[in-house]
User: Fold MYND-type domain-containing protein from Lepraria finkii.
Amino acid sequence: MADPSLISSVTEMNDKFLGDIKCPYKLYIADSRMSGAGFGIFVREEVPAGKEVFRVAVPTVSAVESAVDVCDNCFAWVGSNDPFRAPIELSVCGSCKAVKYCSKGCQRAAWRRYHKEEYKIYREINAHARKAKEFSSAIRMLVRLVVLHQHRRLTDKQWQAILSLKSHKALIEQSKALD
Ligand SMILES: [Zn+2]
Ligand SMILES: [Zn+2]
Assistant:
């Protein structure tokens, strides 16, 4: 039986998720016209180049590719030449070696939110692997989501938003079959 708490239509998604976003433009969620791109957020009017559309203070979940020099918590990038900031130095998390942080503050914030549970998963996997494994950002994001959900650190609204994402399972299976 279908879960009645699941969002069944795009109209419902628009009502539920866009109400809280502060934005000078009229936003709407729709199926993208790009094939296979899934749902996206669109604006109704033309936005001048370089204008900010909206800003999310803290994303529900994020993960940075391990190979790039970006803080996994605040996305500070080593290569940015912001004159108002001291040069960015990243340190690799000693517990899992999978994430980098720009400061003790970022490391602490990530630790509290999900890393104290998630690092054990990577450590456990690597304890059984012959060579330390590299985890893609997509995998790390899924692990993070499960940790956040299991420990009830997501609001109902956030979890519903995730459940209402379009599934690409059929596409993935199709591409696997072609390999
Ligand atoms: Zn940071
Ligand atoms: Zn770690």
The pocket of zinc ion (ligand 2) is lined by residues 93, 95-96, 98-99, 115, 119 (CB under 6 Å). Helices lie at 10-17, 104-127, 137-150, 156-163, 169-178. The chain is about 35% helix and 10% strand. Residues 61-153 form one domain.
